Amino acid sequence: MPVLNSIADMAEEMKAWRRHLHAHPELGLDCHETAAFAVARLKEFGVDEIHEGVGKTGVVALIRGRGPGRTIGLRADMDALPMTEGTGAEHASTVPGRMHGCGHDGHTTMLLGAAKYLAETRNFAGTVALIFQPGEETGQGGPAMLADGMMERFGIEEVYALHTSPRHEVGTFATRPGPLMAAVTDFDIRIRGRGGHGAYPQNSRDPVAAALTIGNAIQTISSRNSDAIEPLVISITQIHAGTTHNVIPAEAYLGGTIRSYSAAVQEMVRRRMKEICDGIGTAMGVEVEIGGLIDLAPTVNDPAKTDFAVAVAEEISGRDRVIPDHPPLMGAEDFGAMLAVRPGAMVFLGQGVGPMVHEPDFDFNDEAAPFGASYFARLVERALPLG
After folding, report:
1. Which domain does 229 fall in, by range?
2. Confidence class of residue 263 from pLDDT cuts 50, 70 and 90?
3. Which residue in 358, 375, 332, 321 sits closest to 107, CA to CA?
């Protein structure tokens, strides 16, 4: 079975939804207008229940089938990025400094398309929970909805998601069992010493020298503390200190990210980083404080649910356009938090090869929407069959 006919007939309607969302991006957990747009559509479709304010602005909508059965969750993220758009499209962002540069406008649209189809047909036994999540880019949204008891409150037993991919042709699906995307720990290291004249460093406690030493030492964690066959990336991406040539500043800052596929590896790196910072701080007479902005679980697909997702994708696009063993990526997704508590799977959906996500020229390709909406719909019908 290819793209569902009734969903194919929605293509122009979904395009209009998606372009409206693209023009009105919101950030982080503050997806008020986006959530309201989704709720308005869901009310039009006649879903059975709508629950707002889950994880601040998250929405969970329930559609019941024609008989009793299990509950499965379908998740789409809603938030945009704090970046300036460069597409020049007629539907480009109307909000300066904000852009749907990761396709979340398309994800929300595809879940709405599936919702309309499922509310009309109800060709399943059980309940589907439609999860519209804010705050994926900040890593807050998935954990916030879980903290509000989403899984227990709505009895969700397994959960699925998809993400657009500009690496693959339109309608191609790609996934893998086990680790698909990395765990992430973003770190801040603030070093406080005593400033002074650049000509007399002996009278200061130089935070710049400490920052350089800490930065070099941190890079040895992957080569000297981690198993060589265990994937691990530690990148220092920021260093800030000083204002002029002849003044030793009082403070310095390092920032960066840790990526692996293992919570145990992430913890080892955090522990070693603290030991390094404490030791160098003591040796060089400076105070070192470590903080963090994001701490995300790895996105680990359940093997059995991945096999199921692959079978559904093959039904939609054909076996030759489904990649069941895609290499794992060092990018991250806060959907990993949901997969840590319920079995399920994430897949990538090709939208045509073009600008990468998080680039100013990226735009979701509306031609991919019927594939994603059909995939979501058939997941429900096959996971919760009538009879």
Report:
1. 183-296
2. confident
3. 375
Distances (CA, A) of 79 to 62, 143, 240, 254: 21, 15, 29, 27
pLDDT at 295: 87
Residue type, position 8, single letter: A
Spatial separation of the C-alpha atoms in residues 355 and 358, rounded to whole Å: 9
Confidence of residue 1 (pLDDT cuts 50, 70, 90): low
- Among 244, 274, 296, the domain boundary falls at 296
State the DSSP H helix or E strand holding residue 68, giving kind and residue range, or none if neither: none
Calpha distance 138→104 (Å, rounded): 13
Q: How many domains is the chain partitioned into structurally?
A: 2
The amino acid present at 281, given as its one-letter code, is G
Whether residue 126 is found in the same domain as residue 163: yes
- Per the prediction, the chain carries an average pLDDT of 97
Give the closest residue to 131 by CA, choosing from 19, 35, 4, 27. Answer: 35
Tokens linked to 352: 């045509």
Helices 104-121 and 11-23, axial angle in degrees (round to 10): 140
The pLDDT tens digits for 26-64 are 999 999 999 999 999 999 999 999 999 999 999 999 999
Q: Are 379 and 1 in contact (CB under 8 A)?
A: no
**β-pairing, 183-192 with 251-260?**
antiparallel
Tokens found for residue 311: 């079978």
Q: Which tokens belong to 26?
A: 């919101």
Distance, first Cα to last Cα, the chain: 20
State the CATH number of the domain containing residue 259: 3.30.70.360
Beta bridge partners of 183: 260
List, in order, residues 6 or more apart from 190 with CB less than 8 Å away.
251, 252, 253, 288, 289, 291
Query: Which SS3 state, helix, strand or coil, does residue 197 take?
Result: strand
| Cα–Cα dist 47/63, whole Å | 5
Whether the CB-CB separation of 178 and 231 falls below 8 Å is answered with no
Same domain, 124 and 263: no
Q: Measured in whole angstroms, how far is the alpha carbon of residue 242 from the centre of its chain?
A: 35
Asked if 90 and 133 sit in the same domain, the reply is yes
How many whole angstroms from its chain centre is CA 17?
A: 21
Q: Are residues 167 and 188 located together in one domain of the fold?
A: no
Where is the domain boundary, 273, 296, 319?
Answer: 296
**Are the beta carbons of 131 and 38 closer than 8 angstroms?**
no
DSSP H or E segment with residue 75: strand 71-77
